[in-house]
Write a structure and sequence with these properties.
about 120 residues, 2 domains, about 65% helix, about 0% strand
Length: about 120
């Protein structure tokens, strides 16, 4: 009876293992700073009219994709998920639906002038 046993309620020596799936303060700080930089870059380019229209659109799209990746990695912890990646699969399906809807809408609007 003198031995300490670990029961299923976590009263053993494994305290703190639930926090491994969450980011550290350092991780959140890095993610926040990178997000701010990725937000400021297109703002500076647009406000100061530093590039052509095509270049500006490309910079906005590239920084938006980078921002999405930063948000998923640093704040949504997509990389830390163990086992089946249901969140990643749901995100992929959502992205496919959005791309289909936006692409179809642009396609319909671009050919709308030919039908009238």
């Amino acid at each position: 009876m003198g031995q300490h046993s670990t029961d299923s309620h976590g009263h053993g020596h494994d305290h703190g293992h639930h926090e491994e799936n969450h980011g550290s303060v350092k991780s959140y700080t890095i993610g926040y700073i990178v997000s701010l930089i990725l937000t400021v870059i297109p703002m500076v380019i647009v406000f100061n009219d530093m590039m052509s229209r095509t270049g500006t659109i490309i910079v906005i799209l590239v920084t938006a994709i980078a921002q999405l990746l930063v948000q998923m990695l640093f704040f949504m912890h997509i990389k830390d998920e163990k086992g089946p990646r249901y969140n990643l699969m749901a995100l992929s399906l959502g992205a496919l639906i959005v791309i289909t809807i936006v692409g179809g809408s642009v396609w319909i609007m671009s050919f709308n002038s030919y039908t009238q």
